[in-house]
Amino acid sequence: MKKYIVFVKSFVLLVLVVFLYGFGAKRNGERILKEPIIEFSNGANLFLTHEMVNKLLIQNIGEVKNKTKSLINLHELENVVFQNPLVENVKVFTTIDGDLKAVIKQRTPLARVNTGTEVYYIDKQGVKMPMSENYSARVLLVSGAVLEEDLSSVFELVSRINGDRFLSKLIVGIQKTAEDNFILRTRKYDQHIQIGKNENLNIKFKKLKAFYNEIFQSKELEKYKTINLKFNNQVVCTKN
Q1: Exposure check for the chain: N or C terminus, fewer CB within 10 A?
Q2: Is residue 184 part of a domain?
Q3: Residue 219's domain is classified under what CATH number?
Q4: How far apart, in Å, are the Cα atoms of 78 and each of 48, 52, 103?
Q5: Residues 61, 126: one domain?
Q6: CA-CA distance, 193 to 155, in Å (whole number)?
């Protein structure tokens, strides 16, 4: 008999919990939403604006304010915002208070590419990223004969330069020739450093650092116009 009473109590409790959960979910789904709140997770909204994101949301579902939660497809909204090429990641959700929130992570540019016919960024993942009318990032400029198939090679070179304290202070630009050779342009004296193909970078940059260390001591750096690292075990220079 006691087991039967315990079973009945457990069953009633389960039914009550399910009822309360369903009632709460229904009430939550009928909650009226407020104006959407847009946040940028990686700092200031440099490339995208709150208005741009809000416009994307409205184009998909219309005005959010005064709609119920149950009418909003959050996954669909995420996909809509994520289609913007300036967005690296997005999370859209509703809060208990009835706010619709979109938390957006913008792409981070590493370099600006100018092919002569097209200008765009490549981001920290090596992905092509369009320019923005709202903000212009101060990053390395890559110019010349850059094709789509060259982006991985350009990304590798830019990442190596940005990740090195000496090189990041020295180099301000990269030029790619039609022969797939790379030329680096320095911040001071506008010197051209020819590194050739994007290979053996460890050896080439080690030679470059050794050369600059020696030239700094002689105080004759401004006399050199080109520095060629393409040859094995030597640095070939041209003076002004």
Answers
A1: N
A2: yes
A3: 3.40.50.11690
A4: 15, 14, 10
A5: no
A6: 18
Whether the Cβ atoms of residue 90 and residue 135 lie closer than 8 Å to each other:
no
Q: Answer whether residue 87 is part of any domain.
A: yes
Q: In the numeric block, which tokens belong to residue 144? A: 């010349």
Tell me the per-residue pLDDT of 100-144, one tens digit each, with 9 for 90 and over: 788 899 999 999 999 999 999 999 999 999 998 888 999 999 999
* Domain end call among 57, 75, 106: 106
The Cβ of residue 26 has, within 10 Å, a number of other Cβ atoms equal to 10
Q: Are strands 192-196 and 182-186 parallel, antiparallel or unpaired?
A: antiparallel
What the block records as the tokens of 1 is 């008999």
Q: What are phi and psi of 150, to 5 degrees?
A: -90, -10
The count of structural domains within the chain is: 2
Which residue, 89, 106, 123, sits at the end of a domain?
106
Q: Look-up: residue for tokens 């741009």?
A: 52
* pLDDT per residue as tens digits for the range 162-216: 999 999 999 999 999 988 899 999 988 888 999 999 889 999 999 999 888 887 7
Q: Is 65 left (phi over 0), alpha (psi -120 to 50) or beta?
A: beta
Mark whether 144 and 228 lie in a shared domain.
Answer: yes
At 33, the pLDDT band (50, 70, 90 cuts) reads low
- CATH number of the CATH domain containing 85: 3.10.20.310
